[in-house]
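User: Can you predict the 3D structure for this chain?
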Amino acid sequence: MISIVEVQETNKMIREMNLDVRTITMGISLLDCGHSELDVFNRNIYDKITKLAEKLVKTGEDLERQFGIPIINKRISITPIAIAAGGVNAESYVPIAETLDRAAREVGVNFIGGFSALVHKGFTTSDRKLITSIPEALATTERVCSSVNIGSSRSGINMDAVKWMGSIVKQTAQLTADRDSAGCSKLVIFCNSVEDNPFMAGAFHGVGEAECVINVGVSGPGVVKRALEDAKDSDFETLCETIKRTAFKVTRVGQLVAQETSKRLGVPFGIVDLSLAPTPEIGDSIAEIFQVMGLEEAGAPGTTAALAILNDNVKKGGVMASSYVGGLSGAFIPVSEDHGMIEAVQRGALTLEKLEAMTCVCSVGLDMVAIPGDTKDSTISGIIADEAAIGMVNNKTTAVRIIPVIGKQVGEIAEFGGLLGYAPVMPVNGFSCESFINRGGRIPAPIHSFKN
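Assistant: Here is the predicted structure, written as structure tokens:
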């Protein structure tokens, strides 16, 4: 039960600290939509998505008005298309992406995730068709998001997929070069992807999920920052306790919205993802939290330790507020979506290498990082491999959402718009890893994978 005190605190967090529910995401299984004919399959998935999600946006808007809680995005995640479309007789899955785009537009959601493949141990024929289709699919659709899982702590890293995805990222960038290669902002390469992530671009509805569920992602960097300002000169124990208590309050908001959405739509409640997801707005920044914690800029010595403190205590506070915390749940560090991170890059405090070190202790990985458009495919693959290795060895989800901005060089600005913001093009290590990437095959799982 939400108390009147919690309601008052929530109202203050909304008015003064940029608290919002970042997304209500409806997960939909497409496993019963299979058919050998492409037209029939497309009709099946369109009909199912538009039927189940028909009232999703309106319900979110009704909740916003009733509770006064901003709900920024209403989204859909679906069964990975490489699985759902496995029996379809088609050489390309671009028409499927176009159908998903039409369905998303029809119900009014801003993104639909699940144009995805899980290839951590190898490729099916359907996986290959989907991956080949990614560049054109993302270039010709507005709301479709794509992800590929190329590794896991249980199976190792599929280095053939890593090599291929470097090329796919570059092709996607080239096909959307007129938009600062923004197609890459809708493509995530994962290690240890999760089945119930409500955040884009990496959301998909896992095969272990129910027929249809509601997952909610909350976000409160501004709330955490304000709380830490009141504990600015305190010791680390007090700092951690402050973050935990704040995360508890933020998660309670998400729990309320998730339960109400579930009840009104008659769809089971899945999880609350309590990730701290920044926006380009002043005061809604992970980098600003670092500054309040005592760092001059994000990227200064101590940044990785500060992020570890933040991430761990966000999780500790969140699990006390909800029995169903899931998704990624921690701190995101996207460059383009956080004005403080952007400024740190521009001032030379934050490098790609420091970002990679930070991903060892944060929720995801290298997120919304712009690099020169002439970066080699193999270099992009090397960056993906490094990030996947961090995830594999540390038993955590890591991801790469990297944007080689065609026609732009280091220091120039790429504009993506909306919540995606803008990003300065960051330098990339120029030494070659091509011979390493060309070895092919699979990196075996680490020894701690054998747990049975």
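The chain has a mean pLDDT of 88. DSSP finds 15 helices and 13 strands in the chain.
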